[in-house]
């Protein structure tokens, strides 16, 4: 796939190019500051954009703003946002448009190359990749009865669903059959009082909306 | 009539007190003269500052008395008498307050007991006239209230004489402020030192140690690479775990120093994020804090940590469903108020979180006030001085 990267740190930028190339992806453009991002995306129309949140000139949340702007300009553009730290608020802002093809991960996750590439592919396929840290924050906050009523296994399933994993991945991660996962998911949705949903982006949004209600 | 007599009686007691001071004044004047003479003999120099202190105490007593009688406090302004003997003597002699006190002492020695003497005939005449006028004819007493006027007179004269010059007052206020600032600055330096040590310890014991362990595993993996690929694989996996943990710890340390979201979004944005993540329904009223220049980073961080702590406590202990955060930009300060409609009864002194909050705010010369009556609501108000 063709990817545009936005990252101001040269070390990380090179690493990212190396990583993507090694997986057979092509890095078509590299932006090293906030204002460069949108023109690069408009020019190259890549399959995916991998953006760092904090970039010059302000070293604030330029990357995040660029991601939001890019999604407005190029609807449905798969965007993977990386950051040195994660904020629930940012996740909410990124997911606000309701469209799929969105990822928000800690930079640390890049180290787990396979998982990172998997997340990128998920995003390109229109799915979601939400960092476990964000999900953890959401889960610990929502400590009311319905979530308490879940079994530990069901909580794990809910966690993985919120991260944007599909049933097959959940089954693999938890070392159970896909049918078992489907059953767990059915139970989770019933206990939380959510209408059953397919395994796409809509399901992630439903789960997140539930957790976010606070 | 009884009321009138009672009031006149009370006023007379005040006058007698004044007379007492004025009689004591003779003694003080004596001591002052003695001290002044003794100073000439150098040996007696130590007596002078002490007698000035004694006069200050007397004047202070009278000031409080005037303040209590008129309901309007009389400010005090002296140069502090400390240091070695000659510095004290110099201050005692140089302080204009000393001469003001002496002037009052001299004047009061006369009018203090004179007013008390005046009260005596007033009593005699008053009891007769008002006894008939007020006691029998039920009219307003006219003579006995004059005693209160005598006390008023004493208070008015004393105030005029004891009021420090505006300049002295300003100097005293400045001196007070300097003392206060020195204290808070010392506190700030200490807090800063403690903070640096904490960060150093966190980095040293946590992140650095992890990186060493990581490097070690990578080294071992390289050695094992050819002979035992499985072992090398396991070592590399461990190394990656260590790297991730080091990163997690670093993030934690960074958050403790200065939450990154403050940099990204400013105080209001960061507080809104806190509110959204608190698990409570929190309304944030920022009253234009975002317009214009930002507060200094330390002030923003302190405000952020205070609000985070307050909201955490509200979510954990108060049982409240909703809370409100108010940020107000004042001319020379930032005001933060966090209020929850919970059950209240929080101990203002207790809790390490609250203590940390107080320390952080005090380091910036700010104030924390907390009210939490049983049954709620709990209100935490913080003021942080800052230049915008």
From TrEMBL, chain A:
Coiled coil: none annotated. Keywords: DNA-binding, Phosphoprotein, Transcription, Transcription regulation. It comes from the Bacteria. Residues 2-122 form the Response regulatory domain. The modification 4-aspartylphosphate is found at residue 52. PROSITE patterns: HTH_LUXR_2, RESPONSE_REGULATORY. It holds the Pfam family GerE. Residues 143-214 form the HTH luxR-type domain. InterPro entries: NreC/VraR/RcsB-like_REC, Sig_transdc_resp-reg_receiver, Tscrpt_reg_LuxR_C, WalR-like. This is Response regulator transcription factor. It comes from Streptomyces niphimycinicus.
From TrEMBL, chain B:
Keywords: ATP-binding, Kinase, Membrane, Nucleotide-binding, Phosphoprotein, Transferase, Transmembrane, Transmembrane helix, Two-component regulatory system. It catalyses: ATP + protein L-histidine = ADP + protein N-phospho-L-histidine. InterPro entries: HATPase_dom, Put_sensor_dom, Sensor_HK_TwoCompSys, Sig_transdc_His_kin_sub3_dim/P. Its EC number is 2.7.13.3. One of its GO terms (molecular function) is kinase activity. Residues 298-388 form the Histidine kinase/HSP90-like ATPase domain. The chain crosses the membrane at residues 21-48, 110-129. It comes from the Bacteria. Signal peptide: none annotated. SMART domains: HATPase_c. This is histidine kinase. It comes from Streptomyces niphimycinicus. The lineage of its organism: Bacteria, Bacillati, Actinomycetota, Actinomycetes, Kitasatosporales.
């Amino acid at each position: 796939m063709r990817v545009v990267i936005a990252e101001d740190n040269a070390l990380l930028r090179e690493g990212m190019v190396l990583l993507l190339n090694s997986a057979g992806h092509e890095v078509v453009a590299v932006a090293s500051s906030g204002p460069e991002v949108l023109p690069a995306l408009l020019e190259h129309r890549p399959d995916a954009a991998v953006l760092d949140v904090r970039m010059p000139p302000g070293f604030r949340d330029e990357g995040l703003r660029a991601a939001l702007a890019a999604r407005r300009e190029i609807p449905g553009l798969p965007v993977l946002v990386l950051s040195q730290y994660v904020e629930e608020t940012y996740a909410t802002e990124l997911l606000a448009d309701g469209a799929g093809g969105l990822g928000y991960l800690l930079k640390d996750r890049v180290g787990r190359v396979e998982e990172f590439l998997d997340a990128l592919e998920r995003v390109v396929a229109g799915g979601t990749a939400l960092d476990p840290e964000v999900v953890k924050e959401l889960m610990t906050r929502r400590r009311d009865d319905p979530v308490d009523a879940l079994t530990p296994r069901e909580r794990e399933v809910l966690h993985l669903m919120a991260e944007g994993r599909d049933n097959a991945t959940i089954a693999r991660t938890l070392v159970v059959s896909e049918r078992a996962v489907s059953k767990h998911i059915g139970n989770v949705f019933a206990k939380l009082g959510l209408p059953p949903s397919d395994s796409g982006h809509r399901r992630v949004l439903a789960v997140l909306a539930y957790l976010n209600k606070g | 009539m009884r009321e009138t007599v009672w009031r006149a009686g009370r006023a007379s007691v005040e006058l007698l007190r004044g007379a007492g001071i004025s009689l004591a004044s003779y003694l003080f004047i004596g001591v002052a003269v003695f001290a002044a003479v003794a100073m000439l003999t150098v040996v007696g120099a130590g007596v002078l500052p002490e007698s000035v202190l004694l006069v200050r105490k007397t004047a202070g007593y009278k000031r409080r008395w005037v303040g209590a009688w008129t309901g309007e406090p009389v400010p005090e302004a002296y140069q502090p008498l400390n240091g070695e003997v000659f510095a004290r003597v110099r201050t005692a002699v140089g302080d204009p307050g000393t001469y003001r006190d002496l002037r009052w002492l001299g004047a009061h020695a006369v009018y203090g007991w004179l007013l008390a003497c005046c009260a005596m005939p007033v009593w005699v005449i008053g009891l007769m006239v008002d006894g008939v006028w007020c006691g029998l004819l039920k009219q307003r007493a006219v003579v006995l209230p004059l005693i209160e006027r005598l006390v008023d007179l004493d208070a008015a004269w004393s105030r005029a004489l004891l009021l420090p010059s505006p300049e002295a007052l300003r100097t005293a206020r400045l001196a007070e402020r300097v003392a206060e600032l020195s204290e808070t600055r010392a506190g700030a330096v200490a807090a800063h030192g403690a903070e640096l040590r904490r960060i150093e310890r966190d980095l040293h014991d946590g992140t650095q140690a992890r990186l060493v362990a990581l490097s070690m595993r990578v080294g071992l993996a390289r050695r094992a690479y050819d002979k035992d690929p499985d072992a090398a694989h396991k070592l590399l996996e461990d190394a990656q775990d260590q790297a991730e943990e080091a990163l997690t710890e670093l993030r934690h340390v960074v958050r403790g120093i200065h939450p990154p979201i403050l940099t990204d979004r400013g105080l209001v944005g960061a507080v809104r994020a806190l509110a959204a993540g608190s698990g409570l329904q929190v309304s944030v009223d920022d009253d234009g804090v975002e317009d214009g220049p930002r507060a200094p980073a330390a002030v923003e961080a302190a405000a952020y940590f205070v609000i985070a702590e307050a909201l955490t406590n509200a979510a954990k202990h108060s049982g409240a469903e909703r809370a409100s955060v108010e940020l107000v930009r004042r001319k020379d300060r930032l005001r933060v108020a966090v209020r929850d409609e919970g059950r209240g009864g929080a101990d203002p002194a207790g809790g390490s979180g609250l203590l940390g909050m107080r320390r952080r705010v005090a380091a910036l010369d700010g104030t924390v006030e907390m009210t939490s009556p049983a049954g709620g609501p709990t209100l935490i108000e913080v003021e942080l001085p800052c230049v915008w």
